[in-house]
């Protein structure tokens, strides 16, 4: 493993353009569940009900209440060492982008700014008529909705939906184009905590690979994207990333929260 971390450090030390791509595993050490692991969300909630437009239209109260619960979990969680290292990385490289599939806000709370969210944001609600997006925290909404109290657009008074990209829907163009551009021009692509079950279809690693980038994956478990990785670090992100950062910058572990 020491050998692998050394290779990882070399790749990052020589890079000018870095593309970081994260999934639910990046927030696991903050106490948030992933989706497809044994204790994952999709083993508790049927994705056809909770993550499709049809599911929402037939059970809006049930779906909103699941997202309200998730908002409370996210609100209580804190960024972990992986989020903090990724946030610190962005000032080191002239060209940097973090693309996250995560709908939590732990990257932002850790300080990430050069980032896009391709699957939406758990705090957002979007009017089903005018499509305007609102921050749920700016409204006094109940912890649990009934059909009478479901969130409505302040302008149209039409039902709002969670501002999440559900199955069968498209990733917002701007976020997708920015990600493709950075993937196609990076020296290093760092993939953290995603199974690739959804993102395998986005083609980011293939583009980075075609450009000649070094692909590095941090994930305790092999996934769909691992076959493209030049380096696979089979460790939790909150363990591997501080080691990398310490080697690159000389910053002590005590400048980071415990993994
Ligand atoms: P998955 O649940 O599919 O994969 C999570 C990955 O995190 C797995 O490969 C785990 O091995 C890995 N993992 C677990 N703990 C880790 C740790 N401490 N450090 C690093 N990796 C760890 O989640 P995603 O790939 O993010 O969509 O799922 C993609 C999308 O599917 C999600 O964005 C979500 C879901 O439907 C929406 O919510 C719109």
Pick out its properties.
259 residues; alpha/beta; Rossmann fold; SIR2/SIRT2 'Small Domain'; six-stranded parallel sheet; binds 2'-O-acetyl adenosine-5-diphosphoribose
Structure description:
The chain has 259 residues and is an alpha/beta fold. It has two domains: 1-31 and 78-119 and 172-259, TPP-binding domain (Rossmann fold); 33-76 and 120-164, SIR2/SIRT2 'Small Domain'. It contains ten helices and nine strands. The strands form two sheets. A six-stranded parallel beta sheet has the order 3-2-1-7-8-9, with helices on both faces. Strands 5-4-6 form a three-stranded antiparallel beta sheet, with helices on one face. β4 (120-127) and β5 form a beta hairpin. α1 packs across α10 (237-249). It is elongated. The model has no long low-confidence stretch (mean pLDDT 94). The structure holds 2'-O-acetyl adenosine-5-diphosphoribose. 2'-O-acetyl adenosine-5-diphosphoribose is lined by residues 23-25, 28-29, 34-37, 40, 51, 101, 103, 119, 164-165, 192-195, 197-198, 218-221, 223, 236-237.
